[in-house]
Amino acid sequence: MPLVTIIIANHNYEKYICDAIDSAINQIYPKNRLRIVVIDDASTDNSWQIVYKKYFQSVPHENCTIGSPTKTVVLPNGVTLIATKLDKSVGPSQARNIAITMTLQSTDIYAILDADDVYYPNKVLKCVQKVMEAPTVIGVVYADYDIHNVETGNTIREYKEPFDKIRLFNECIVHSGAIITKHALEHTRESTGFYDINLRCAEDYDLWLRISDRFMIIHIPEALALARVHNQNSTNSVKQEIWQKCWTRVREKLIQRHNEPTTI
After folding, report:
1. Rounded to 5°, angle at Cα 167 from 259 and 229
2. Which of 133, 155, 154, 137 is nearest to 146 (CA)?
3. Residues 51 and 17: beta-carbon distance below 8 Å
4. Which residues in the chain show pLDDT less than 50?
5. Per-residue pLDDT at 18
6. Which single residue of 5, 7, 33, 196 has CA 20 to 30 Å from 94?
């Protein structure tokens, strides 16, 4: 089975981070082929202390490396957990880039998990099985998900539509918590990184557009994750002018790529 690295970039999600990590740990997937990388983006709440205490502090020394900024533990079920805390906040794009760069040589497929969301147990397996149907052709696999409103307690199903490239040009129809092949990341990397570090938001949309130029994107019509909606989400916490700036950059990059002459 491919080695899957689940990336969790966290900034001030102390209420949710352990739920995210636990959902990654409990995936129905060969444990020795599963790795979790948590990048704490200079959180100012107790996120780092909570993660350290729960996953590292009580682990036998021979299974845990804690003397460096990057801490590694082999959990009792065989899953490897790596966590590092950044001294300065760099944003979600660079945080994910750091995790990818740390693990690129030994990873086949990346799964992106927001720190306030959770994967259902079969998320990774079902997505990887789809990739394995055409591993050099498929670049991204995404699925439906459930949306839980923290304020109201209501949960509804978000039915994503089957992939269509023209639709993607007009709207981000791919969920941010998709899985991505290493092959696709390597072949669409820009000077600004795998994720564009100039984008504070819409960074995933930019990546899907780039990957769709060279690889297939596949949809699984089944809810495989739960996404929380609350006032700390980027949709609510990032200023509208920043969103507009990021969307403009994504569009300008798209136009530039499609106006470039084709080279053979």
Report:
1. 120
2. 155
3. yes
4. 262-264
5. 98
6. 33
| Residue located via tokens 């636990």 | 22
The tokens for 55 are: 């996953």
Give pLDDT tens digits for 28-49: 999 999 999 999 999 999 999 9
Q: How far apart are CA 244 and CA 241, in angstroms?
A: 5
User: Is the C-alpha dihedral spanning 49, 53, 56, 62 positive or negative?
Assistant: positive
Residue burial 25-58, b: 16+ Cβ < 10 Å; e: rest: bebebeeebbbbbbbbbbbeeebbebbbeebbee
* pLDDT for position 127: 98
Give, in order, the Cα–Cα distances in Å from 143 to each of 1, 88, 90, 153: 20, 33, 28, 23
CA neighbor of 17 nearest in space, from 58, 43, 51, 55: 51
> Which residues have a Cβ under 8 Å from the Cβ of 200 and sit 6 or more positions away?
91, 92, 93, 234, 238, 242, 246
d(CA 209, CA 186): 15
